[in-house]
Amino acid sequence: MEDKARVAAEIGAASRSGGYFFLRHHGIAADLLSAVYEETRRFYRLPVAEKTKYNAGERSQFLGYRGLGREKSTAHAGAEACEQYRIGNTQGSLGTPVAADFYHAPFVQGACLFKRLVDLGDRCSRRVPMTWACQRQILTRP
């Protein structure tokens, strides 16, 4: 228990000072990470016409593909010079004729990794508030 409290304190301190932390020995298999990288390379090598079948938009809760220049930056005037693809959780059903699984189809391993990362994040965040002096203000609603 003492070790868990120490790790929670370190995560809390890193989150407060830098805003993020790196986690080693997280239990996510190297094979899964390799499969996600390969899946990603395979998708981005597809012709644009194939990738745009998965175009993201408000109705898809922004799941899916955003081609070059579609993402606008608040940090500078102009569009981002990169392609992006979003998988993830949604709120209720999508406003499209297809389900969220359609947008996750090109990234089966990525969706698996996403679920594992959500679980890992949940487990970390349950431990960290124990160390925060402002626990009551953060975890309660007015």
List the helices and strands and how they pair.
Blueprint: H1 2-17, H2 30-44, H3 48-51, E1 64-66, E2 84-86, H4 100-104, H5 108-127, H6 135-139
Antiparallel strand pairs: 1-2
Helix pairs in contact: 2-5
Summarize the structure.
The chain is mostly helical and 142 residues long.
Strand content: under 5%
| Sheet with the most strands: spatial strand order | 1-2
| Overall helicity | 40-55%
Structural class: mainly alpha
* Biggest sheet details: 2 strands, antiparallel
The rounded Rg comes to 19 Å
DSSP summary: helix tally: 6
Element-by-element helix/strand order: HHHEEHHH
Mean of residue pLDDT? 79
Whole-Å distance between the termini? Answer: 32 Å
List keywords for this structure.
142 residues; mainly alpha; two-stranded antiparallel ribbon; 6 helices; 2 strands; 4% strand
Descriptive report:
The chain is mostly helical and 142 residues long. It has 6 helices and 2 strands, in the order αααββααα. A two-stranded antiparallel ribbon has the order 1-2. Helix 2 (30-44) packs across helix 5. The longest helix is centred in the last third of the chain and has 20 residues, at 108-127. The two termini are 32 Å apart. The model is unreliable at 133-142 (pLDDT under 50).
